[in-house]
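Just scan my protein:

. . .
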Amino acid sequence: MQIINKIYTKLVLVYNISQNKDLNKSKELAYTAIRNTIGVLLFLSIIFIQSLIDLFIADFKIKRSDFPIYYLYLGLGIIIIGFIYFSKVYLKPNLEYFPIPETKNPTKLKRYFTGYIICIALFGGLIFVLLRMLYIYFG
């Protein structure tokens, strides 16, 4: 939770200083960014795990009499709904804003925000490329 709080604090500073939002709006935007980032990472990880199961463990075919694939998707849906509940009940009340005096430089904050977005995009691209390669070579 300490890492998430550090990211939260830097995102609050990004929205507050470099995008000229007030502190409460910055906190809400930072919470939304953290929640969506964790959701994207969870969703892409679930798709990757489901693809590994599909490729190496079971051969899923969608037919009227083939129910295990529906159970798998039902389980994935329950995980996503559980994440939404987790973020409302646990994540939002536990985020703490600790002002860091040495990061008041808007240029450094913009670089941090750009790096944050690039890291998320690279993770998504890496998952996409890995899945395409897995399905090409093993599918």
About this structure: The chain has a mean pLDDT of 84. The CA atoms of residues 103 and 109 lie 7 Å apart.
